[in-house]
Each structure stands twice: as structure tokens, then as C-alpha cells.
Design brief:
The protein has 3 domains: 590 residues, Maltoporin, Chain A, CATH 2.40.170.20; 183 residues, no CATH class; 75 residues, no CATH class. The longest helix is centred in the last third of the chain and has 13 residues. The termini are close together. Helices cover 9% and strands 46% of the residues. It has 14 helices and 45 strands. The protein is globular. It has a 22-stranded antiparallel β-barrel. Strands 11, 12, 13, 17, 18, 19, 22 and 23 form an 8-stranded mixed β-sheet that branches. With 977 residues, it is mostly beta strands.
Amino acid sequence: MTAFRHCRHTRLSQALLLASLSPLAGLAQQTPAPQQLDAVTVTGSRIKRVQAEGPAPVQIIGADEIRAQGFTTVYDMLGTLNQAIGTVEADVSWGSHTPNASPLNLRNLGPNRSLLLVNGRRVADYPLPYNGQSNVSNYSNIPAAAVDRVEVLTGGASAIYGSDAIAGVVNVILKQNYSGDQFRMRGGTSTEGGRDTADVSWAGGRTGDHWSVTYALQYTSRDPLFGRDRPQMDDASDAPYSAWTTEQRRVGFRPSSGIALIDNATGTRQAPPPGACDQFGGEYYLADRLLYNRNTGVTTNTGQLCGLSADYGQWLLRSGSKDLSGYLYGTWEFGNGVQAWTNLAVFDSEAQWGTSPPYVQLPAGLDYPAFYDTASGQQLIGVRQFTASEVGSQAGLRNRNRERSWDISAGLRGTLADGRFDWEASLGRSYYRVQERISTVDWQRANDYFLGPQQGTVDGLPAYTLDRARWWTPLTPGQYAQIGAHSVNRAASWVNQGALSLSGRLFEGWAGPVEFAAVLEAAQQGYRLNPDPRANVDYEVQNVDRGGGERTRYSGGLEFGVPLTATLTATLAGRFDRYGDYTAFNDAADQLDIGTQKESTWSAGLQWRPIDSLLLRGSYATSFRAPDMHYLLGQPSSAQVRTLDQYRCIASGAYQINNCTGDNTEVTYPFAINRRGTPDLESELGNSWTVGFVWDAFENLSLTADFWRIHLEEEIRDIDETTILRDEAGCRTGLTITPGQAWSNPGGADYCASILARVQRNAAGAITAIERGPINLAQRDVSGIDLSARYQLKTGVGDFQMGLDYTNLRSMREQTYRTDPNPERRDRDIRSKLRGSVSWLYGNWNATVYGDRVGAVPGVRSHWGLDRLDNPGGCVPFADGGVPDDRANCTDTDPASPTFGQSTRKYYGRIGPAITWNVNVGYRITPAMKLNLYVNNVFNSTGYNHKDPYKLDYEFYNSRLFSPVGREIAAEYVFDF
């Protein structure tokens, strides 16, 4: 006899899933009457209720809906939600500090201003800092096979959940009280080639009279996608012709160096030996490096080299990973109304990432720009990339991440006063660790292999005899092993937490029972970055982040639900959070004098049901985000940079005679630029409000509309060295280095004091070091409208269920300094998102069509000049590719130019929209077996067929908006037992 799986939901949780448009679930049975529903907790409130909708909008997405829309992971689905209107760093972005992380940007407020909960509890942050600055959550380490539903609340919720809940809360509810087993196996690929995928999962559970256990195991594999898999974008010449420069239109693109020898004095290349470039299996070709002077029309050949046949053929377009996750949840009833529970979730991942392959520049290291070659008597620079055949495999070119996270918690729950009150006590620990293994080249061993022993110095440069045979000949894997290296960076983050909550009915009010909820929480949060001590000492590593420490948090909150009339209910919540007891992880493990952040937040909401089918609602909430630990505890990273001392430039009078150039060593000289955390940061503060309605217009049709606005103050941003030097000079003199232009103080005396403290000068007045880093200075305001519709229809040819969601960003304003102008910036990013689906069920057949539309974004050239808010937009090129100055109203002001005095027009073009359609069809073969077929991105909408007409740099399109993968197909087998 076949055992059918089922999940023992409460009736309200079933209703929540129906409200989320879980495919056709609502058509299989009659929706229970409201009076029959059990009370459960819905994200946004700790008070249990019997209605899905509350004073603030919450979107609920069931696990079946996630799969029906074609998504394999929770993050794939979350990224398409309309609330996630902000973009995030692509996983293959050049210089990414978090290449294997999957953050979420709700309401375009940034990926670090929303809160991730799993079963209502916090989890550890991603250990590595996003953009090298702040801490974010990773949404890709959630075991999809274990997910029951996802609840998304957008807007401030700090009065309920504390810090981080400025833009919203994502609460992932995992399966509980599950009975039966389900096995799923899915495999797919892209029709354009590459990017094979596999997903295998087993979820199940058992229940008894006094116990239950739920479990899930999932393996997901995604192959990396390389530039060579997409010939439409594997070379620099694949950039749109309209983006090509004058030189590129006349003589072609300058070849990227596969192997080159450059004369340091003249900049010319030494020709490779005959046939040398042909030895590398087609990776290189013999190329002339041509330069073209637009003003004179002269073409200059600067020599030959082994150029890359496909500049980006070995670059990753999408990272690959192999993920294994597991989940276990169990309960035990003691028989006296007390239940014990425990939860364990584990995630293990190995990912490939990176852009360009390992390379070496001779002389390797940071000490010298060139070397003296004793054989030729020339000062030379050698540049060489290594190929897969030399390294030994394609995988050998890549960087790898090994990640593991686990979350364990346990608790007791029960009732008091004959079931009048519910209580729960819990303890838990969440831990996340990352190991980065970066492919690079050991500088000293590379010098030894190609240059041999140093033979003194000549003209201040190290003297060597270049072994040209080795330089121009492919290496064997064994030879590469002599110079190759791996830099290993490690990082970890954790949170230990305990909570005690009590909720229930306080007393009977004049219009109904007054409900309340109370919570006490304590937590210890920490992170540690352990970069490779040899990074940028013995070999090059792109990003080196240092820092670490711990802090404690104590919190308490109260919430009330008060019926004011039979149709009007008010909610009120307040919370206090204290962050403090900071400890930095350095050699002395000192306790820092950071002090504490003490924040009180509150929220209020109203729900009015003038008729049963209509809910009018509104809410207001204050919120905060305690400073990211890396903002506070980031340890110094330093670089010596030759930079203009703007104060000396002004004080010496050199600025008045245009003598603040690199030739004036009194004002332009090298000094240390350090970046570290700022211990005296304050919390970011926000407030938000929503107003809207939910209307069951007629049977099986529901409409919702909500207007929302979020305001953020004291936003933390990194202040860079240019700003520090400019404002130090301004604070001291009131002037700028532009004669006749006064300096405007953006922040008063306190701001100047903080700027002056960041500049260190010696007795002679010369800068020895400046310290850049985060400060509280910015504010932001965003507002928009969310619309949605749900409709169910039964017909003779099947049952249909339809849903549509639309978000429009009505306004976005931000100021770096209070004295800055505050114009409308809505047009600078995504302005709207639309998503919807239609599901059909007929007998053993079912199908779903899902589509989403992401609004257009400004093209790269339309962004040129946007920092000058009074004169945005860039200039359209002339016919030969030359581009005039947008500061001169797109007029060519160069007298030597062939287009002198001519003008073009401003460009304000937008790229997009991005429209994606997914289709799946399923057939139930037997009561226990089912087959599903998926086609994602049916019309093959990709980045390379949405290239930005003026984007010359890789990937030629907006990689935060479009994907290079294209159409994907997959088949899935499902077996219930």
C-alpha cells in the first residue's frame, strides 16, 4: 500500500499557503471558515492570529509555488520578488569580496539593511564583508528541500525583531510535523551550452502520539559558465560597435597580453620567436599592437606579442558550486502541556569563482617596475598569463571556496493558565565558516624560474638574465607547480542566542480580547577574518580583509493587540536593544572603548474591516541598524600612495598658479593611506509607514494595494582619501584648490574634528598617513506602491489560479552630506518590477506559466555626469568614435581635434526591460510518481542580446540585471512513499 506524504499544518497555515498562490492548492478543497482557524504567528507580529492579513503587508510564498515557478533554490525565487528592487553585486564581479554570497537588497536600501530569520530566529552573518565593508546575510545556504514557506515583510520592524529590520524581514519557515517521504531528482542544462545542473533531495518525517521528527537532505550542483561557452561575449571586440573608440574603429582592439616583453624605456614590445605563439593550443596568436592618434591620423606599431585569442574565454560568467544541505527537526510531548523541540540545519558548499586566470609580471613583486636584462642591455617588463594546459586543468585556473554553516537550537514551549498564555524558551548557536583558496603565482619562485639569480643592480633596477626559452615555451603542469601557489584566507562568524517569550490574552476589552506578546533576548555575536599572512607579500591577492571581534546584545519587547470596535483593531509594539561589551580580536584581544548602542523603537498599526470583504490598514514603525561589526572592528590595511596634499597646495599658494601637479614634490608625495573600522559609529536610524487595503472583490478574486515610504538617517558610508584631503584643507582654510571657489562645510564643527583626526602630519607639516573608513553622514528616502491580484477559476477544462504582483518605486532621494542637494534619483536605477503566474490543473496534468519583468536601467553613458546633479547625462560619440566633453555641453573643445567646435547630443538612454518567462508541465504517472518538465527563460533573454550600446568594458551589459545563461531546460522525477 502506498503511503502518501502530508504535512500536518494548522488550518491557518494552510490558509497562508493558499493566500500565497501555491499552485492550485486552494482549488482542491474548500477554504475553511475563519471561525475554524487555529491561531498561529505570522511574520511582523509575535501575537498569534487567525487571519493571514495584518496591519503591514506580508507576502507568503509556499514551497510548491517556488518549484512551480521553476526555481531550484530559495535565493533564486527571492531575487525575483518585487520587494527586492535593489541590485546586488554579481557573483563574478571584478574585485568582489564575497563571490559566493547571495545577499538580498530590499527596497533598494542596500543588502545589509534587511533581516534574515529561519524559523523566526537569527542566523550567522556571511563571514566575509560585502564590498570589504559591511556584514550581510547569505540567502543561498538555506536547504530548499526543508522549506515549508517564506514570509516577507517589507518596512521597518525593529520594534518586533530589533536591529537590521529597516527595509524588511525575510522569515524562512522550515517543515515541521511532516509525515511520509518524498524523493525528488532533477537534471538540466542550458540550450546555449554549459551550465549543467542537478538537484537531488529527500524530505520526510514520522509522527507518533507524543513525538515527531522531520528531516531533509539535498544535493545541488551547478557547473560554472565560462566566456568560451558564450562566443557572443568572449572577446573585447564583442562590445557593441557604437561603444568602440576611434582607435578601435581604425586599427582594431589592442590585443590582451598572453605573453609579452615590453621595453620599459620606449613602451615597445619585443617580437616573439617565430612560431612561439602557436605552441599554446590556439590560446594565443601573433598580434601587432597598434596605436592610433585621432588628432594626427597616424598609426604606430608598438611591436608584436602573443595576444589572447579570446580575451575573456577563460573568465567565469557564472560561478559553479556543489552544495549539500541537511535538516533535522524533532519534538517530544511530555504530556503536561509542555513540548520539547530541537532543530539542526547544516550546509556545505564548494564553489568555483574568479575572472582572469593566474598571471605573472616580471620582475614579480612590488619592489621594482622593471628589470635590467643583461643579455639585451634593456630595461624590460614581462607579462604572461597561464593556460589550462600549463596548469593541468581548467579547474586549476579557478579560485575555490569551501563553506560550511550550521544552526542548532532547542527549546521548550507550553501553555499557562489553562491555555490562556503560550510560552517558549530557547537556546541556539549558528556558525558559518569560509575558506578561500585563490590561485596565484609565487613572486620569488617565478623570478627564479624565468630570470635566475639576481646579478646586482643597474640604474636602480635589479639585473637578471631572462631565460627566453622558458619565457616563450609552454610550461608543463610539473613546471607550473614550481611557481604556482594558493593563497588561503579563512573567515568565520557566529551568533549564540537565547530567548524567552510569552503571549496570550490579557483581558477582555470593551470590543474584544486584548492580546499581548513579550520577549526577552540575549545574544553574543562575533566574526573573525584570518587572511593569508603571505598575501601581497609573496604573491598577489586581490582583496585582503582584516578584522574580528565579539559583542553582546540584550533586548526586551512588548506588543499589544487592542480591538477598539468590532471592526477596528490597533496594534502597538515597543522594544529596547542594547549592544555593547565589544572585544577586538587582535594580538592582545583588547576590549575596546566603543561604548554601547542603546536603541528604543516602537510601531503602531490599525486594521479596519468596514465589511467582511474589505480590510483597510496602515502602520508606522521606527527602526535601527546597529553598526556592522566590520565597520567598528575592521583592522588596518595600508598602502603607500603618491597623492596631492591639498592643504599644502592651498597654504603654499601653489593652487593660485596651477602648480599643484605631480612635478611639485612639496605638495604631491607618497604617504600611507590606511583603512580601518571606526569605533565611535552610531546606529543607523529609520522610520517607515504603509497604508493600503485588501479587498476580496468577489468570490475567488482578491486585490491588495499598499503605499509605503522608508526614511533612513545617519547612514554609514566609507569616506575616501580624496574626500578626507579635500575637507581637511577646507576645514583649515575654508578654501578649495580651485582658485576663487570657497569650501562648503557639510557637517559643522563635529565633522571637521573627525576629519582632522584622520590626518597625521609630522613636525614639518607633511602628511605621514591618513585614515579612511566609515562614518555616519548620509540619509536616504524611498517610497513606492505595491499592487497585487489573486484569482481562482474552475472550468470544464481544468482549474486555474492566477496571481499578479507589481511594484513601482515612486521616489528615491539620498544625500551624502546634509548640505548636498537632494534631487529625485528614481531614474538612476530600477523603477518597477512585475511578476505573475497562471497555474492549471486537470486530472493528472498540471502546468504553470510564470513571468517577471524588471524595469529598464540607465545605460552606462547616461550615467556619465550623474555625479553633477545639475547636468546629468553623457555625450553621444562622433561618427569616428571620438567623444566630446559632457561638461562643455557635448562640444569638442580640443583645437587639434578633427571635430573641433562640433557638437553631439546628450544621451539619457535606458537598457531593458528584462523579461523572463518560465514554463513547467507535470504529469502524475501513478498516485506515488510524478514527472515534471521545466523550461526557464523560454525566449532566451540574455545579457549578450541586451548589450549596452556604449558599454565597452566586460560584460558589455548590466550584469546585475541580465544573465548570460539563457534558456534552461530540466526534467524532474518525484516519488512519494
